[in-house]
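F.,

This is the one I mentioned.
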C-alpha cells in the first residue's frame, strides 16, 4: 500500500465507554399532576385573550364567556385524581379498555348518548383568570418542589457489582452486593405510566446473600433506556469497571 493510500485512510473514532454508573430517582405521584397546572395556564391564557370583564359585587374579574373551559378543567382534574390513585396493570389494563368499549357500544345501542350529551351541555362551570393562575401556580410550586428537590433526597446508585441506596437526610447510605441480584421492571400501569408518565415505570430489586431484601422503586422516569444499563452493571464485578475503562482508552 502506498503512502498516499495510507494518508487517505480515515481512522475510526474510538468507541465511547459504556456508562459506569446509573442514578435512579423515585418520583412521587405529584409528577403525574403536570396536566393540572399545564391546562390551567393554557385556560388562563385563553381567558386573557378572549375573556370579558365581569362585575361581582365590588370586584371586577376577567372571565371567559364560554362555560366549556370550566368543564374541561374540572374533568381534567378529576381524571388526574383518578389515574394517580387507581393502579391498573397488565391484564387489568386490557380489561379496563374492553369495559370502556363495551359500555360505549351499550350506551349507543340504548340511545343514551343523546341524553348524556344533553345533560353535559346544560352543565355550566365558570372560573375566572385569577383562579386559573392562582390554582395552577400553587400546583406547579408543589410539583416543582417535589420534582427538583424532595424526590432527589432519596435515590439509588448502580455501579459495577454494587448498589448504593442513599438518603440525603437521616438514613445515610446502604450498600448492596449485586451478586445474584435481580432487577426487573414491573408491569406498566395503564394510567400513570402510559398516559401521564412518558414511559415511566416501577423498578423491582431483589438482593441475595446476607442482606436478602426485596423492594420496589416506584415511578422511575425513562425506565426502558435505563434498565438495560442497570442489568449490565449488576452483572459485572467491581474490578471489571477498571478493565473496561482501560480497554476503551487503549489502542484499537
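My design for it:
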Amino acid at each position: 500500500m502506498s503512502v498516499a493510500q495510507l494518508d487517505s485512510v480515515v481512522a475510526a473514532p474510538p468507541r465511547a465507554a459504556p456508562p459506569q454508573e446509573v442514578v435512579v430517582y423515585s418520583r412521587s405521584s405529584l409528577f403525574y399532576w403536570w396536566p393540572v397546572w399545564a391546562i390551567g395556564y393554557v385556560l388562563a391564557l385563553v381567558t386573557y385573550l378572549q375573556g370579558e370583564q365581569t362585575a361581582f359585587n365590588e370586584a371586577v374579574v376577567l372571565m371567559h364567556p364560554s362555560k366549556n373551559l370550566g368543564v374541561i378543567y374540572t374533568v381534567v382534574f378529576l381524571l388526574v385524581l383518578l389515574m394517580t390513585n387507581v393502579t391498573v396493570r397488565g391484564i387489568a389494563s386490557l380489561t379496563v379498555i374492553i369495559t370502556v368499549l363495551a359500555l360505549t357500544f351499550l350506551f349507543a345501542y340504548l340511545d343514551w348518548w343523546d341524553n348524556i350529551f344533553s345533560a353535559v351541555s346544560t352543565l355550566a362551570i365558570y372560573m375566572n383568570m385569577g383562579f386559573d393562575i392562582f390554582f395552577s401556580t400553587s400546583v406547579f410550586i408543589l410539583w416543582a418542589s417535589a420534582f427538583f428537590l424532595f424526590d432527589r433526597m432519596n435515590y439509588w446508585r448502580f455501579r459495577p457489582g454494587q448498589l448504593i441506596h442513599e438518603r440525603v437526610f437521616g438514613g445515610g447510605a446502604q450498600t448492596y452486593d449485586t451478586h445474584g441480584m435481580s432487577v426487573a421492571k414491573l408491569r406498566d400501569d395503564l394510567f400513570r405510566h402510559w398516559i401521564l408518565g412518558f414511559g415511566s415505570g416501577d423498578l423491582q430489586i431483589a438482593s441475595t446473600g446476607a442482606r436478602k431484601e426485596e423492594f420496589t422503586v416506584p415511578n422511575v422516569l425513562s425506565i426502558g433506556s435505563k434498565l438495560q444499563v442497570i442489568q449490565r452493571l449488576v452483572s459485572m464485578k467491581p474490578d471489571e469497571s477498571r478493565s473496561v475503562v482501560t480497554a476503551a482508552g487503549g489502542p484499537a
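The chain is about 45% helix and 20% strand.

Talk soon.
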